[in-house]
Amino acid sequence: MKDKLKETVQGILSTKWADQYDLADLIPQQYGISLILLNKKDNHRFSPTIISNLLLEQLFVKNLPAARESLEREIEAALVK
Predict the structure, then answer these.
(1) Containing domain of residue 71, as a range?
(2) Strands, E assignment, 1-81
(3) pLDDT by residue (tens digit) across 35-57?
(4) How many domains does the chain have?
(5) pLDDT (tens digit, 9 = 90+) per residue, 56-78?
(6) Dihedral angle sign, alpha carbons of residues 20, 25, 28, 29
(7) pTM of the prediction?
(8) Do residues 72 and 6 touch, judged by C-beta distance below 8 A?
(9) What is the DSSP string of 56-76?
(10) What whole-number distance in Å separates Cα of residue 29 and Cα of residue 32?
């Protein structure tokens, strides 16, 4: 399952215009969990996993590999809950 999770996350993040809402919508469809994205437009979503603005910036703006790993750990932790 961990490999499938990693593959799904990498697939989402490898798209040219990876969108944080893709993560909010696709991950729950695949794994039955929700992500809450902390931003001004979406602060009404509630879920067990919180992804910070800093991580989203590192991921989508700076495209740092460590941010991808951190996101995978966050999602993996949510799967364990």
Answers:
(1) 2-80
(2) 35-37, 49-51
(3) 554 444 444 544 445 566 667 66
(4) 1
(5) 667 666 778 888 788 777 767 76
(6) negative
(7) 0.40
(8) yes
(9) HIIIIIS--HHHHHHHHHHHH
(10) 6
Maximal CA-CA distance, the chain:
33
- Whether the CB-CB separation of 56 and 41 falls below 8 Å is answered with no
In Å, what is the CA distance from 20 to each residue of 52, 66, 81?
A: 11, 17, 22
Residues 6+ apart with CB under 8 A from 14: none
Residue with tokens 């809950």: 81
Q: CB of 12 within 8 A of CB of 18?
A: yes
User: 31-36 — which CB contacts under 8 Å span 24+ positions?
Assistant: 31/5, 31/75, 31/79, 33/75, 33/78, 33/79, 33/81, 35/75, 35/78
